[in-house]
Amino acid sequence: MEYPALQNKVFFTAYFLIWTVVSLAISFIVTPLIALPFEFCLLFGAVSGYLFGVLAIFLWSVVKYADYSVRNGFQRMVSYLALALMSVGIWIGVSFFVLYLCMPKNNITPFEPLIPLELMLGCCFFIIVLLIYNKMLDNVNDSEEEEELENLEQIIEQEQPDVAIEMLERIAVKVGSKIEVIMVPDILAVQAEGDYVMIHTAQGRYLKEQTMKYFEEHLSSNQFVRVHRSCIVNVQFISKIELFEKQNQLLTLQNGLQVKASATGYKLLRRTLNL
Q: Does residue 162 lie within any of the structural domains?
């Protein structure tokens, strides 16, 4: 999914106007705090506001692909804290570097008392942007999974009734120079890994060159449920189900692996478990 603000000119214009308003607001906030003419306050506001607007575009890619949502609460908090510190640090560092280049005689001393304000604003901007992005990604994921489920149901309906898909009993995976044979009942979960899948068992993890769709079709639906577009779980190894955010659930397997279940995936899981 492309960054929303870059999809067309209307969205880009709206995005630009939002950060223009933010820049002006920052300019008026700092005016009584520094002994400089208002044009320098405008410069400070413009540099701070527009730079964070640019940084927010890069944050979209990080939040989208890092998928912090599948981690437990503590891991997620540490990851977001590290991302916040890095983002705010880059923002302040680049902002003052640009001011250094723009100010007469490269004198940025009058702006140094504003560093605490920059820290506070950076943290506020980061939290707001993060909340918006997570909400947007949840909506996108739910839409994709609903569409994926509908397509799968259409495929099943179009199949000939006398053609049965052979269910897997065992899976062979290559580990170094050896071939390991995994019995299907021993599989805890199957997770997407690009063009591969990661098969989780109590003994370890095994990478297999295969698609999620293949396993979804060839594993028994009475035992395996695709709870997320990137994960299939063995319902027999689920040890805990708890609410995660608004419309999602967090599944904990017996080996400690935690998996996010989408709204659609949770409906399938409840149907399988007769909940």
A: no
